[in-house]
Amino acid sequence: MLKNTLLTSVVGAITLASTLICAQQPPAGGADQAKAPAGQVDPKSATPVQVADGTPKGQLKDPYNESDAAVVQAGGQLWLNYGCNGCHGGGGGGGMCPPVTNDTWVYGGDDDTLFRLVSYGSQELQAKGYSRIGMENVVGPMPPMGGVVKTGDDLWRILTWVRSKYSGSPECKFGCKK
Ligand code: HEC
Question: What is the pTM of this model?
């Protein structure tokens, strides 16, 4: 009984510690953004949250391709500008937080899921019915970056850069086919 309580509090302390280490930046409050009027979600001017809110689940698609070197380069710069590197490392290979370059995708590897995860953060994503399907070595909450990244277009360019950094097996690039 006492042993159980001790164990629980140790596990609790570890979880808390890794949360503190991993989530250094305060949540950016992405969910509070105003909603875009229906049918008018232009990623060039709308915030990531507006784009995500205004697009039916499963239909967000990266308009860019990693073969476009200018987009990849811009995306890599935005990755640094918006501080994604602080948690995921400059090359995306992980640091205090999970890598974005390997074949483990925590909620799924498709464009739609990644865009929503970064926009809403992992807690709101889960509240919207998504569940964890993969486990990285480091586990922590992904903060909502939808109030930090200025436009949906910026986020697509970042995600295009993320695709260009992928180093896992080809069949898992956009989520493993079961
Ligand atoms: C405070 C630390 C932190 C910052 C800053 C951060 N992330 Fe994350 N990110 C995480 C954590 C932690 C996870 C894993 C979430 C989980 O396990 O629920 C994650 C998950 C991800 C994933 C999915 C990785 C996978 O393997 O499925 C992507 C993609 C991602 N982040 C992109 C970004 C982008 C783009 C930015 C910058 C706009 C960013 N992150 C900023 C902590 C951070």
Answer: 0.83
